[in-house]
Specification:
The complex is a heterodimer. Chain A is of the alpha/beta class. Among the domains of chain A are: 196 residues, P-loop containing nucleotide triphosphate hydrolases (Rossmann fold, 3-Layer(aba) Sandwich); 183 residues, no CATH class. Helices cover 15% and strands 37% of the residues of chain B. A 6-stranded antiparallel β-sheet of chain B has the order 1-6-2-3-4-5. The chains are: A alpha/beta, B alpha+beta. At the A-B interface, helix 8, helix 9, helix 14 and strand 9 of A face helix 1, strand 3 and strand 5 of B.
Chain lengths: 637, 92
């Protein structure tokens, strides 16, 4: 028995408390570990599910559960938890992890045993969490993850010696490559049947201050002859360029511009091809139906609406491919470091950068990611400004308007296009609105706080084809699902309202229908922005979700006899001015057209006050900005 | 040996953490990243704007603003990173 910890006045830790009475059945297994050690990668391996994984700390902010199907243990539920450094909690995500682990989270059963995941390449530091986790008293398997990295960089671990030192079984695994995982079913079997694993309980640092855990961890690694791996030479070399005073920001800018350029040069032709195919397919399918109201509904109403959104699939996937590469490679944390100066000047913590960056995909996960921000006021500020970041749902209306109204002019030998530049401009004004809002909050409601900027920089890793492929697959599926549910539903409603009321068995003409009346009624309000009543209906319908406007416009222009045979781009060019078109995308840059975001803000702040304020504020900004854009452009051109 | 604020140490130099003078909730977090007395730390590089700077502590790279780093003190051991001791901590 190894007893080695000094200055301890508490009794020994019992390894497994024997429950009184009958043998209880094992049901729940918790996955715990420090941030960015690969818990979610392992979770996905063991359950066959697809929780989001990426190469930066704080990806998981909620608990997720799944059955351990992949190792044939359908009877066991595995709970994936946010990463923690200790059982003391300063942020929302850490609180969730500790409450679940100690059985205090309502609605989540107390775990019967624990898989403690540690990054094998930084064992000294990662082991600090082991002592507090062991002290909870549950059977625990220690999984030293990233064995591939450890070996590649010349590190060594004696797992048997470590198991003896810790008094708990230890296995070396690579969750990313699926190696060493056989230790897990073996452990679960033993833990379930209380088989002796031959390990003796050991004394742990009971004071559990960071310093005592640390010195204990260092002693353990020293006694087990742990050799930490050499620093990754690649990471150092890359950083000396990517964080360089001149090349760093330059690279950052090039990456951003490249994203938009590729969305147009590669995405637009793909999207056009898809449009041609879908229109053709719709027309062919419509020929099979008799020429009656049903055909009108299916082709002019639903198909026109849904397909005008579907054609943006290639652009959305390209955007997510880029986001995936940035997140998986580890560059995201560097970008946060480069951007900290700007964030600080507006009074935001550099930690707000990662949630804000993920808002470029979607504001909903971004708002949840603010849970990693310890300071409450900064968290609220970040939640308030996140929807100004240009999310992927704005991409369809942006690309539609830009492709319809902006000539495909190129500069710098064809490398840079006017369309990509305008798109970049829209992203920039969204970002500026966020900055200015944060600045205003900071100088009025939120007094500058002094939560420090502390950011771990992960090693660079190659994004794997599988991981990127799965992300795109999931994203594509989500997009198609949205097109098949929300967009289809709203489109159907728009169609119904555009043929009612029925007079003597005849549908109304578009302009005398319910929706025509509604549109004409709100038109005076939108006229100064350069919008006509159809755009107005589009705006109303897009409060559900931003993409919906494209579907609604597809339906409305498809139903109008004047524009029936034209594509949506051409129809728009005939119907609104350049000023109105630019005003429309400017409106979308600022407006809060997203019910899901409002609901998540309500959930995260526990009140309707913030989402209501956010909606009114953003809509006002959007209206004023669109008004200015239309007035200025219609005077200039 | 000189005791310096981490924010004043030159890029490329290395030393051992002497003490951390920060509020509990910050020093707690830093401690779990390795910022504890006795741990060796190396000043790796500056972000393009000069601040934050990147420190290598315990095999991990951590970015800190100077406003935080000026409350962490280190005993400088070398001005170049080459002869850094590999093991990190004194026994408690």
């Amino acid at each position: 028995m190894s007893c080695h910890v000094t200055a301890v006045a508490e009794p020994l830790q019992e390894k497994i408390p024997t429950p009184p009475g009958a043998t209880p059945r094992m049901r729940t297994v918790a996955l715990i570990g420090p941030p960015n050690c690969g818990k979610s990668t392992l979770f996905n391996r063991l359950t066959g599910m697809r929780q989001k994984v990426a190469n930066y700390p704080g990806v998981t902010v909620e608990h997720h559960s799944g059955r351990m199907k992949s190792i044939g243990r359908n009877d066991l539920t595995l709970i994936d938890l946010p990463g923690i450094y200790s059982l003391a909690t300063y942020s929302e995500d850490a609180r969730v992890a500790v409450e679940v682990l100690t059985g205090k989270m309502p609605g989540v059963p107390k775990p019967d045993c624990v898989l403690l995941v540690l990054d094998a390449t930084h064992l000294n530091r990662q082991l600090m969490l082991a002592a507090p986790v062991f002290s909870i008293g549950l059977p625990t398997l220690v999984l030293l993850n990233m064995s591939d990295q450890l070996e590649a960089r010349g590190g060594k671990i004696d797992t048997l010696a470590l198991a003896r030192e810790l008094g708990h079984p230890v296995a070396l695994i690579s969750a990313a490559q699926g190696r060493g995982l056989e230790a897990i079913p073996d452990f679960l079997l033993r833990a379930g049947s209380k088989l002796d694993d031959g390990l003796r309980p050991v004394q742990l640092p009971v004071l559990q201050s960071a310093a005592s855990c640390r010195s204990w961890a260092t002693q353990v690694t020293a006694r087990t002859k742990y050799q930490s791996p050499a620093a990754s030479l690649w990471t150092r070399r890359l950083d000396s360029v990517l964080l360089h005073r001149v090349f760093g920001p330059l690279f950052f800018l090039v990456v951003v511009i490249a994203v938009f350029q590729v969305v147009f040069t590669l995405g637009q032709p793909l999207s056009d091809g898809m449009g041609t195919f879908l229109t053709g397919a719709g027309a062919k399918a419509a020929m099979l139906l008799p020429d009656n109201w049903l055909r009108a509904l299916l082709r002019d109403g639903l198909w026109n609406g849904v397909q005008s959104v579907l054609v943006f699939l290639p652009q959305i996937l390209l955007l997510f491919l880029f986001i995936g590469i940035l997140e998986d490679s580890g560059y995201l944390a560097r970008a946060a470091l480069i951007a900290d100066r700007v964030m600080r000047s507006i009074g935001l913590n550099g930690k707000a950068f990662i949630p804000l960056l993920s808002a470029y995909a979607c504001a909903v996960p971004a708002i949840m990611a603010t849970r990693t921000i310890e300071n409450k006021r900064e968290r609220i500020a970040t939640i308030l400004i996140a929807p100004f970041m240009t999310c992927s749902a704005r991409l369809p209306i942006y690309t539609l308007i830009i492709a319809a109204f902006i000539p495909n002019q190129r500069f710098l030998g064809g490398l840079l296009g006017l369309r990509a530049l305008l798109m970049l401009g829209l992203y920039v004004i969204g970002f500026l609105a966020a900055l200015i809002t944060a600045k205003m909050l900071n100088s009025s409601v939120m007094k500058a706080s002094h939560a420090p900027f502390i950011l771990e920089l992960p090693q660079y890793r190659w994004p794997t084809v599988t991981s990127l492929g799965l992300r795109l697959y999931d994203r594509g599926k989500l997009f198609l699902k949205k097109a098949g549910t929300i967009i289809l539903g709203v489109t159907f409603l728009v169609w119904v309202l555009s043929v009612l009321p029925i007079h003597g068995g005849q549908f109304s003409a578009l302009s005398t229908s319910v929706i025509g009346h509604l549109g004409h009624w709100i038109e005076p309000l939108l006229r100064p922005l350069g919008f006509n009543w159809k755009i107005g209906i589009g705006l109303l319908s897009s409060i559900v979700a931003r993409e919906v406007i494209v579907g609604t416009l597809g339906t409305l222009y498809g139903m109008d006899p004047a524009t029936h045979s034209l594509g949506l781009q051409v129809a728009l060019r005939h119907d609104i001015t350049l000023g109105g078109a630019i005003a429309l995308v400017v409106f979308f840059a600022f407006a809060m057209q997203c019910t899901s975001t409002l609901i998540i803000v309500r959930r995260e702040t526990n009140s309707w006050k913030l989402p209501a304020l956010q909606f009114c504020y953003m809509t006002t900004v959007a209206y004023v900005a669109a008004l200015v854009a239309n007035q200025v452009i219609s005077r200039l051109f | 040996m000189d005791v310096l604020a981490l924010s004043d140490a030159k890029v490329g130099s290395a030393g051992v953490v002497e003490r951390v003078d920060l509020p509990d909730e910050v020093s707690h977090y830093l401690a779990h990243l390795g910022f504890l007395p006795g741990t060796s730390v190396e000043i790796l590089r500056r972000a393009p704007a000069g601040d934050p700077r990147v420190y290598r502590i315990d095999g991990v790279e951590v970015g800190l603003r100077n406003e935080t780093a000026k409350h962490i003190f280190l005993r400088v051991i070398s001005d170049t990173a080459d002869n850094l001791p590999t093991e990190t901590i004194e026994a408690a």
